[in-house]
């Protein structure tokens, strides 16, 4: 059984190959290039180093979010493209859950936080692999309120600790905060692969959709009734071209001269 | 010679598309998932919504394109993809998927410039459209006047200084309350109007082939505001007809002028705005009056599609152009002049 994991949800471009539950190889880059320039080359390189061909891969694990919208999509589209022709099953794993897997053997509560900009973090909390606070996009204060209720020393990880470390320490007191070493702070493709296999054994079904935890800005504005610049028009369009009016239905448009 | 079978993938704006084209000419399938109804609610394309939907639809679109073509992935010669210009988030979905698919099936990857795709739409529509010719490319994002010397060998003679032609159509349509997408709606409304009811100024530029549409756009908006302040009724149809007349005349006239100046016997039009009946008619009349041939693609090939991407890729494939696994998407990719 060979598993491939791909991650581009944050600043790391990461890939990992497992064979029968053992890590064959893991590669990651943080060199400031866009993931589209690094992820697929890393993946090809890892397969070559491990002397594994894509046809031998039984399943692919991908981050299903949250994270950088564009990064998540690069990871997802890369995984989908690799899987398409050979019908390789795809599995989606939460980015937050994948991060806590880095240290899930520890007793302490683990708060995972990703910088979601706009003064918010994508966050969830875990203890011994079990979720104790579900995924949400909230202010750092909301996360700290939850953390304060927990006992003992607590672990904070994910890229959200870079902008908020000081605030976390001030809120809980330095002695109660644990920040992991750099190799365990950010996304690791090996954690994605290993957690993926574990979750699959527990019954996770194949299938993949991104869960962003945040709607596009235009949709939020529309719901808030703030779409002043736009005239909201009825849904009727392109019938001159014979295009389908049904939303998003993929259709063949033959070329007749 | 062995057939060249190319799978084209296009996701530069709000249409997710895949198509299989044989030898750059024969369209075996042309699948499109259009998001136009989704974006209509917002009065224009919302990039983040477009990107999300591309990712949801891309597998289905590619599978359907293969199925409609009656081909399997192993039959393909290459995979082609639009890598710019366009919305970066949208482009990246197609580029990432295409690169991974090409690697998985061990076929070459061919990166295609979106405008070269539009130009190639004419090769699908007309077997006798063979370079050299002069081509006007006008869409929501582009307005270019080009000399196509040979396949993949282009010289840019004119471009827009401000708005793209299609963008001007969309903005006017929105201002008069027609909604999005503006092009087809404005054209529909113009049918009932008098094209000479208003005379809008033509931009005076120091170059013979460039365009500018911000002046005429402002003139239309001023007229609207003026009438509104006076509390007078305004004929939307007349306004649309006059605007369309002015813009199309300018586009067609400059295209003809370039063909005459270069001594070329053929002219063509491509891109979303080329679906406009007024523009097609004007270009055809002008070409005919000067004994030139005129080519324009069928409406479904004018808007974004992947068949045109696969057609353009055929010539790139023959010329040995290949993309690497590290290929990126470029939102403002320039046309390379040959």
From TrEMBL, chain A:
It comes from Oribacterium sinus. Residues 34-204 form the Gcp-like domain. This is tRNA threonylcarbamoyladenosine biosynthesis protein TsaB. GO terms for cellular component: cytosol. GO terms for biological process: tRNA threonylcarbamoyladenosine modification.
Automatic annotation (TrEMBL), chain B:
It holds the Pfam family TsaD. Keywords: Acyltransferase, Cytoplasm, Iron, Metal-binding, Transferase, tRNA processing. SUPFAM superfamilies: Actin-like ATPase domain. InterPro entries: ATPase_NBD (IPR043129), Gcp-like_dom (IPR000905), KAE1/TsaD (IPR017861), TsaD (IPR022450). It catalyses: L-threonylcarbamoyladenylate + adenosine(37) in tRNA = N(6)-L-threonylcarbamoyladenosine(37) in tRNA + AMP + H(+). Substrate binds at residues 137-141, 170, 183, 187, 276. Its main location: cytoplasm. GO terms for biological process: tRNA threonylcarbamoyladenosine modification. Gene3D superfamilies: 3.30.420.40. Its EC number is 2.3.1.234. One of its GO terms (cellular component) is cytoplasm. Binds 1 Fe(2+) ion per subunit. Its cofactor is Fe(2+). Belongs to the KAE1 / TsaD family. Required for the formation of a threonylcarbamoyl group on adenosine at position 37 (t(6)A37) in tRNAs that read codons beginning with adenine. Is involved in the transfer of the threonylcarbamoyl moiety of threonylcarbamoyl-AMP (TC-AMP) to the N6 group of A37, together with TsaE and TsaB. TsaD likely plays a direct catalytic role in this reaction. This is tRNA N6-adenosine threonylcarbamoyltransferase. It comes from Oribacterium sinus. The lineage of its organism: Bacteria, Bacillati, Bacillota, Clostridia, Lachnospirales.
